[in-house]
């Protein structure tokens, strides 16, 4: 089990009735985008459908994922995150950022 | 003491406006769900403190919120609007896209929520693209009534500019009416299992076949509560009426300055008294001559009178959306409507005089009124 810090955008914080940052437990040692999001939705079911489409499981178009100053949004959801990112997340040195994209003109 | 509660959904949150039966002094709470688009809120006729709200943004998708205390507090309930067949090999089926190609049905947002008249836990949701969902557990879980979208004309339905939106749900269970832009109006006589299109008499420019079964851009439909077979429709162009449960429609635009518009309202105690808000045209979504006028017919249509007392008669270029008009059931009926300019107006005397309850909300998407004992 790996503890991961996750930072949420303000609308999702309000929805989850939590602070800016939450900590979720990801099973096993390997950290993938899907594992982090599954753990997040398990802890906060109200976030189901707000980050990933309920039907397809795909990232919603205007939601992005970052960690360690890297854009992970388009990484395959089941691919292990880069080793340095995994190490920083697992150590709690860096958070996994869920971001509402700048959009709307 | 009797209380009146107005539920306003806006581009940036929900607002609850309350008054006593005089409807002169109002208190305002909100925004609830600030920053989110609230397409529609509606209370249960059985338990008025049970209110459902459709909450959406392009960023974070669709949520349904439920209140059990008249809008003071809210709980998110279910938001799984999975289309039947979507996860199967054959897929959900297709409708027609703007370019004339088939496009798979896809959930986008809930436009309208219609609580049951008999059970506070039962509520229907009209979802873009053109799907009807039902919940019997207070919005926690949703099941698609697939007969609507699977109607034989479904593959030919094409979205209007606002999307393939089912914006009108009229419950006379087991009879249900649904109107979809730009498919038309459909009726089910078996609780939503099977449907038939009821568009005979609708004439729409842009549809080459004047007898086209589907493809009509219906903007809103209302039924009178005591004459359930009588329906009134504001179409893209034309105000229409049916006296036989939608089997046949005829035009009642009469002397309106424009028969383009979005909402239509029916007086709760006078079956032949109607309200519309004419808009200049489909490309000029504001009132003719910059003067905001509600038009009232007391003859069931064709003969209309402008209602202007208290409404801006110059430099007014707002629109009034299809779900943004509502009428209360007090003896002297109150008429309410919201504008894209953020005003919510009330007339406590059936339209003779008007006053703004609020002037500066975000663009108003929907208005519903409740009378509380």
What does this structure look like?
The complex is a heterodimer of chains A (105) and B (373). Chain A is of the alpha+beta class and 105 residues long. Chain A has a single domain (2-100), classed as Beta-grasp domain (Ubiquitin-like (UB roll), Roll). In chain A, 25% of the residues lie in helices and 23% in strands. A five-stranded mixed β-sheet of chain A has the order 2-1-5-3-4. In chain A, a hairpin with a 2-residue loop joins β3 and β4 (70-71). The longest helix of chain A is centred in the middle third of the chain and has 11 residues, at 33-43. Chain B is mostly beta strands. Chain B has one helix at 146-149, and strands at residues 3-10, 13-20, 27-32, 37-43, 51-57, 61-67, 75-76, 94-96, 102-104, 109-115, 123-128, 131-135, 143-144, 165-172, 175-181, 184-188, 196-197, 218-224, 227-235, 239-242, 250-251, 264-266, 274-276, 294-297, 305-307, 325-327, 335-338, 344-347, 355-358, 364-372. The mean pLDDT of chain B is 96. Chain A binds chain B through residues 9, 11-12, 15, 46, 48-51, 53-55, 60-63, 100-101, 103-104, and chain B through 35-36, 57-63, 76, 79-83, 86-87, 107.
CATH class of chain B: Mainly Beta
Q: What is the assigned CATH homologous superfamily of chain B? A: YVTN repeat-like/Quinoprotein amine dehydrogenase
Number of strands of chain A: 5
Q: Please report the number of helical segments of chain A.
A: 3
Which sheet architecture does the biggest sheet of chain B show? 4 strands, antiparallel
- SSE arrangement of chain A, N to C: EHEHEEHE
CATH architecture of chain B: 7 Propeller
The third-level CATH topology of chain A is: Ubiquitin-like (UB roll)
| Tally of separate domains of chain B | 1
Reported CATH architecture of chain A:
Roll
Features:
heterodimer, A: 105 residues, alpha+beta, Ubiquitin-like (UB roll), five-stranded mixed sheet, 3 helices, 25% helix, globular, B: 373 residues, mainly beta, Methylamine Dehydrogenase, Chain H, four-stranded antiparallel sheet, 30 strands
